[in-house]
Amino acid sequence: MTRRKLGQLEAETLAVLAGQDRPVTIPALLEGLVGPPARTTVHTVLARLIDKDMVKRTLQGRRYMYELTVDESELAAEKMFSPLRSANDPTLVLSQFARGLDSDESEMLRRILRDSPETS
């Protein structure tokens, strides 16, 4: 069995939580993870995500319930901003990104840029 990096497990955990319509327990979360890691590992990941204010934990009866505190679109956008902002040539990064879009995604991006108010 290959071990996932904690960053990857954090991303997978966030994705599982984003797919839920209500708070979930750790056993329910484990069911959503592929090749579930050890329960203690999930506890560690959840504690880190709570520290980052991305997940909250509430006590319901005798069980803790976990849910996202951020919007899934915010998470995805942040993943896109990080490499763009740290690149030596952000124009080249954006160009590569745009060339990788399919026609529907390209049109969606054009529409978003056209309809977005100018920022100064």
UniProtKB/TrEMBL annotation:
Keyword Transcription: yes
Family annotation (InterPro entries): BlaI_family, WH-like_DNA-bd_sf, WH_DNA-bd_sf
Gene Ontology MF terms: DNA binding
An individual GO BP term: negative regulation of DNA-templated transcription
Keywords from the UniProt entry: DNA-binding, Transcription, Transcription regulation
Pfam family, one: Penicillinase_R
Family: Belongs to the BlaI transcriptional regulatory family.
Annotated protein name in UniProt: Predicted transcriptional regulator
Source organism of the structure: Brevibacterium sandarakinum
